[in-house]
Amino acid sequence: MPLDPLRDAHGRLISDLRVSVTDRCNFRCQYCMPAEGLPWLDRSQVLSFEEIERLVRLFARLGVTDVRLTGGEPLVRRDFPKLVGMLARIDGLEDLSLTTNGYLLERDAGALVAAGIGRVNVSIDSLQRDRFFQMTRRDSLPQVLRGLDALARHPEVHPIKVNAVAMRGFTEEEAIPFAEFARSTAFQVRFIEFMPLDADREWTPDAVLTGDELRRIIDSVHPLEERPRDPHATARVFRFRDGHGEIGFVNPVSEPFCDDCNRIRLTAEGKLRTCLFSIRETDLREPLRTGASDDELERIVREAVWRKELKHRVNEPGFTPPPRSMSAIGG
Length: 331
Ligand code: SF4
Hints:
Blueprint: E1 16-20, H1 49-61, E2 66-70, H2 80-88, E3 95-100, H3 105-115, E4 119-123, H4 129-136, H5 141-152, E5 160-166, H6 175-184, E6 188-193, H7 211-219, E7 224-226, E8 235-240, E9 246-250, E10 263-266, E11 271-273, E12 282-283, H8 285-289, H9 294-306
Parallel strand pairs: 1-2, 1-10, 2-3, 3-4, 4-5, 5-6, 6-9
Antiparallel strand pairs: 7-8, 8-9, 10-11, 11-12
Helix pairs in contact: 1-2, 2-3, 3-5
The protein binds iron/sulfur cluster.
């Protein structure tokens, strides 16, 4: 732990950095982006591997121990495993993980593991091919499941989580199939409540199928018991009473977990976001590209983190969603 670790004005220590390496994606998930996609960043606007490495090294010096690589879809970034290798060599990092839609995992699993990825979250919203297509606008479930199997052949990657976004009128039918998937495989299934981060701005509170509703559907068939919550954990995790695995619920809307939030985010173009729902951002690319020293960058980062939002205000009157959508923030 550094002498003066990164903390906000609410006394929370910051140790978890989410790094978006691209805003581009090969899927078109309904809860994230429109069918036609979004205007992508020009390549010159996106941080280079060397710039990402320098910033992550700085954050590690300030107490960040966990780095999660996200997108858009990180595996569409060319030579992505090379970046993983560069980050895996940084002193002070204890955990390097990845969030992916899994489409390119069959191709990249071996290279990612060899480069240093230790944990992976794969986004799968349905285990039924037609419904997967309905949600992602891609007929890619078989390819994604092959990717998951390719990854599972590397025991050094643990855990492998399968994250399903929960949407009312869709995910109710997925609850039991995912519960049985969690019971019959080594993958840890997590349902994540739909958040107001969709580019179409169609989110409403009514569209949120809460974790508690899903838990009750599953519990009525496969009785559950709750596991104690780890500090900073975003999921409430339940064991199946008969011992066949566990399943989790990430409930940012119905049960916010902001009190002990230790997370900050770096966008693909170098903006520091201190909360998933931040309205303001701090540009690190400009100082990075105009010769700022590490001390100067550290001062900018410390000031921004000190102003980190206490919590999100999704459930409050007058809530304003952030100006950018999920694909341009990263999970
Ligand atoms: S909404 Fe913001 S403050 Fe709350 S847990 Fe997420 S990132 Fe942290």
